């Protein structure tokens, strides 16, 4: 065994030299957060995949074109201004030529135009089923392909159920329309009565500016409520002739415009120099405004139970998808026009129920608000004339009658 002659040293004589003129950057007082983004590696899209995705997007856009057009027609019809009926309009409405007029205006009806997508789909399904059955009967397909036919007994049993669904759906929608109409009737009559009490009850000349402002707020409330319940209304355009700019800016900046105007009315009533009993009488009219807001917001926020609406829609879809199969033995190719007529009729009834479910775009709210403004402005203008006329009558009566009740000669 070989042994080393010198001992092994386990240390070194190397002495490190310090770095000269080395300036370290100042460390930040707070630790910095370093974010890392993980990039997933994927194969670049091939020309075939990009072309297939573009073709699928084109197909989807084509299929969506007709429903989007139908929805635009429907919404444009919902934004049309309704008018209150006059005597001339009622005569035109019950004319014996109304059926011809209604038939000629079918292509401009928003209800009928909104039914174009479902009617086209179910009519095409009927064409496909009729073509398939004809091909099978003509032996153009192998023998194991069956003819799509079925008994009409299930349809005879379920037809009353579908009729009841449509009737109840339409009746529920009309009850909502009637409730909205009654709510606005109360708002209009309450506004007119409130303005009448202010015109007759505030007689102090020093309160004339506040009286005029109060009447402006009362006229502005139905307009604010109308803009509150109808989507897309321009409240600034509707109120710029009724309110001053400062008041209008406060109303526009508020989250709930009708309640803001009610606050204006309440504060104005507190500033008027009135007896406490008369002030309480005037403030009692504000409850009619709150009631109108509550009913309108309830109708807007709570539709007919969605399960009922979905059930009616699904029932109609399944009914018309299987209708060509049921009618094939009796009608053959006549199933195509029969399906078209059935889909157009039944879906039209369901569409009317959906449209009047939201009652306020169907009501003539613009005309109602304009009528309220005209009535109040007419009452303001005729106030001085009526007072002068009544004062003259009282003077004439006092002049011709003595205090003891005997006439003077």
TrEMBL record:
One Pfam family here: Bestrophin_2
Annotated InterPro entries: VCCN1/2, YneE/VCCN1/2-like
Topology class, membrane: Multi-pass membrane protein
Swiss-Prot/TrEMBL keywords: Ion transport, Membrane, Transmembrane, Transmembrane helix, Transport
Record-annotated membrane-spanning stretches: 111-132, 152-168
Lineage: superkingdom: Eukaryota
Location in or out of the cell: Membrane
Name of this protein: Voltage-dependent chloride channel 1, chloroplastic
Protein encoded by which gene: LOC107409136
């Amino acid at each position: 065994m070989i042994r080393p002659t010198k001992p092994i040293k386990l240390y070194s004589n190397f002495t490190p030299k310090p770095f000269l003129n080395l300036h370290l950057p100042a460390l930040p007082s707070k630790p910095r957060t370093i974010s890392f983004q993980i990039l997933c590696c994927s194969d670049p899209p091939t020309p075939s995949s990009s072309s297939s995705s573009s073709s699928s997007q084109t197909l989807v856009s084509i299929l969506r074109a007709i429903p989007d057009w139908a929805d635009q027609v429907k919404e444009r019809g919902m934004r049309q201004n309704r008018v209150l009926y006059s005597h001339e309009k009622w005569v035109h409405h019950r004319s014996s030529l109304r059926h011809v007029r209604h038939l000629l205006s079918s292509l401009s009806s928003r209800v009928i135009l909104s039914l174009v997508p479902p009617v086209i789909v179910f009519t095409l399904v009927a064409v496909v089923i009729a073509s398939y059955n004809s091909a099978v009967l003509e032996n153009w397909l192998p023998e194991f392909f069956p003819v799509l036919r079925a008994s009409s007994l299930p349809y005879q049993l379920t037809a009353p159920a579908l009729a009841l669904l449509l009737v109840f759906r339409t009746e529920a929608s009309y009850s909502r329309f009637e409730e909205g109409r009654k709510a606005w009737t109360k708002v209009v009559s309450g506004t007119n009565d409130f303005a009448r009490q202010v015109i007759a009850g505030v007689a102090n000349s020093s309160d004339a500016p506040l009286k005029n402002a109060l009447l402006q707020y009362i006229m502005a409330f139905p307009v604010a409520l109308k803009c509150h319940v109808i989507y897309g209304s321009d409240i600034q355009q509707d109120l710029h002739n009724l309110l001053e700019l400062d008041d209008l800016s406060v109303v526009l900046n508020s989250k709930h415009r009708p309640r803001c105007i009610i606050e204006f009315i309440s504060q104005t009533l507190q500033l008027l120099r009135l007896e406490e009993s008369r002030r309480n009488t005037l403030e009692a009219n504000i409850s009619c405004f709150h009631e109108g807001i509550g009913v309108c917001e309830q109708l807007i926020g709570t539709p007919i139970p969605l399960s009922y609406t979905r059930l009616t829609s699904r029932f109609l879809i399944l009914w018309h998808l299987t209708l060509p199969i049921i009618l094939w033995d009796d009608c053959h190719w006549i199933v195509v026009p029969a399906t078209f007529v059935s889909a157009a009729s039944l879906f039209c009834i369901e569409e009317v129920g959906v449209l009047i479910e939201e009652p306020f775009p169907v009501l003539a709210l613009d005309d109602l608000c304009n009528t309220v403004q005209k009535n109040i402005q007419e009452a303001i203008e005729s106030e001085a004339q009526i007072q002068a006329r009544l004062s003259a009558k009282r003077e004439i009566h006092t002049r011709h009658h003595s205090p003891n009740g005997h006439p003077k000669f």
